[in-house]
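Researcher: I'm preparing a figure for a lab meeting and need a structural model of a single chain. I don't have an experimental structure, so a prediction will have to do for now. The sequence is pasted below. Please return the structure as C-alpha cells so I can convert it later.
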Amino acid sequence: MRTTLESGVALSFHNCKVLEPPNSAFPNSAKIVVMMNPQDPWSGSNYSDPTYPPLAPKPRSKVVAVLLVVLFGSFGYLYTYRLDKKIFYLGLSTSVLLSVLSLRYPIFELGSFALLVYFIYDRAKLPRSYYQNYPNEIPRSLP
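Model: Understood. Here is the structure written out cell by cell.
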C-alpha cells in the first residue's frame, strides 16, 4: 500500500491497512496504520501463526534429572525448566514456606522431607520419552 502525507511525502507500507476515523466525529484526526500480518523482520515468519515448527530436540537424561532432584530438591526442575515452570515455582514456594515454618515448629521438617520424596517420585515416574524429546513434549499440569 502506498499513501501520501499532506507534505507530499510518499510512504510505502507492506501488509498494512490504513484506518480512517469518520469525518463527522473527528474532522482533524490522523490516520492510523495497522499491520495486517505482523512478521518477524529476521526470519519472515508470521507472529500470528500459532503453529510454529518444533524446536530441535535437546535430549535430557532421566538419571540426571532424578539425581539433580535428590541433590538440590525443587531446583532439580530447572533441568527441564521450559516444560516444568509451574511445578518448579510451586515446589520452590512450598519448600520455602515449610523451611520458615520449621524454624518455629520442628514438625514441619517432616513436611520438607515428604516434599523431597514427592519430587524424586515425580521425576522417576516420567517416561524416558519425556526427556528424550525435550522441549517438544506437552508441558505438564500441576499435580
